[in-house]
Design a protein that fits this description.
Elements: H1 4-27, E1 32-35, E2 42-47, H2 53-64, E3 69-70, E4 82-85, H3 91-108
Antiparallel strand pairs: 1-2, 2-4, 3-4
Length: 109
Amino acid sequence: MQRTDEVTPALVAHLKTCRDTLVPLLAAVPGVSVATPLGGMYAFFRIEGHDDCLTLAKRLVREAGLGLAPGSAFGDEASGWLRWCFASQDLGRLKAGVERLQGWLAAQR
């Protein structure tokens, strides 16, 4: 069994890699604002023109296959934002998710 002092640094490094993969991809999407998290495994972002985050989260599940949490579930200060969990074993899944988001946004124009 691995010791905590062996597992924790590897997990932190992996989550940093996941964050550093997702955040720049989201930031490059026109109309998307993203807050770079300092820790954890979630990134909060908002999409210009979509202030009702609960309705938006439901649409993204149905129409883009993206399971994102509405920020309003985490308090009034997160209203209008979406939360993306970036803890993934496969960085390709994060990239594919952003591609689905971009495709959905393009279809809305």
